[in-house]
Amino acid sequence: MGQFWAMKNIDRQEVYDSGKLGEWLLASDHSYLLGRLMAPIQLPKSVEYDTWLTEGKRVTQRSALFKLPNEMFDMIFDELESDDVSLLCLAITCKDLLALAKQPIVDAVNRGMSTWANCRLICMGEYTQYVEELPEGMLTADELARIKAALAAASSEDENEEERPISPLYAS
How far apart are CA 126 and CA 135, in angstroms? Predict the structure, then answer.
């Protein structure tokens, strides 16, 4: 028995599911959460990346692949956005692809560096039902309006305006 808890980032609208508080707090690996709570490391401005492009020989590519317009490569890189390893493997096959993939690789590095530092966080149990149960002033007027609009759209039942459950919006 017991309720499940989740760490919620209000500003980024992200959720870290944790489980039952006693089990999660004492027995889980918290490396993902700790990585999110740390301030990001400032990387040098693509010094190594530019070095890879300028050093060594550059071989002219004769493959039909390189007759494609750059926009097609952008579409390929967009498809690989969620798979950073595949993006890097494709990019390092030759310097031409590495040059074309520079921005998608930089974007992938920045995604990996996203942080919850300086964001509003709350550890919220599944039994939390109503906006009124949250600490006063935690949500802005705009956020409260979005919650109420989402709940009104999600529920066709006529409920008391002040006691609308918040669980659908904050569900993981």
Answer: 16
